[in-house]
Design goal:
The chain is α+β, with helices and mostly antiparallel strands. It is built from 6 helices and 4 strands; from the N terminus they run αββαββαααα. Helix 4 packs antiparallel against helix 5.
């Protein structure tokens, strides 16, 4: 499959998600891991589209998401930084998702500066990520509170 980057940008505007997860990881100094990811979810009948997008981005994994839905998930930091972000900077998203993308970019920049390895950096990342997508992230808020008090 050949994809036009303008089409990819429009498709992601409707079907993509920029997400930042915070997970407990006792092997890290802060006790938590920051995991940014870019996702596109589709019904299983369009799984070939996800495989085509995986080739387009030259990165990611196509896997089952839920019931009859599959996802392309890109977690590789270098791919996010060097492929995904430049694409959407050159071919900007047009919906409100653009604001999530801008926040996602700022988190990637913070991670590039290693802010995610320190308690205060994780707190800042949680504050930014909590304003992405639908907001209201109780688990992230609980982690933030624990980091601030502990």
């Amino acid at each position: 499959m050949e994809f036009n980057p303008h089409w990819v940008s429009g498709f992601v505007d409707g079907e993509g998600t920029f997400y930042v997860g915070i997970y407990k990881n006792p092997t890290l100094k802060s006790g938590y891991q920051v995991l940014p990811e870019f996702r596109i979810v589709q019904h299983q009948k369009d799984i070939q589209l996800l495989h085509g997008l995986k080739s387009f981005f030259n990165s990611g994994v196509v896997r089952k998401n839920h019931e009859d839905r599959f996802e392309l998930r890109i977690r590789n930091f270098e791919a996010l930084k060097n492929i995904v972000l430049p694409l959407f900077n050159k071919y900007p998203l047009m919906s409100k998702k653009r604001f999530d993308f801008i926040k996602f970019c700022s988190i990637i920049q913070m991670m590039e500066k290693k802010a995610h390895l320190e308690k205060n950096g994780i707190i800042q990342i949680i504050e930014i990520a909590s304003k992405m997508n639908r907001g209201n992230k109780p688990k992230a808020s609980a982690i933030k509170e624990k980091l601030e008090t502990g």
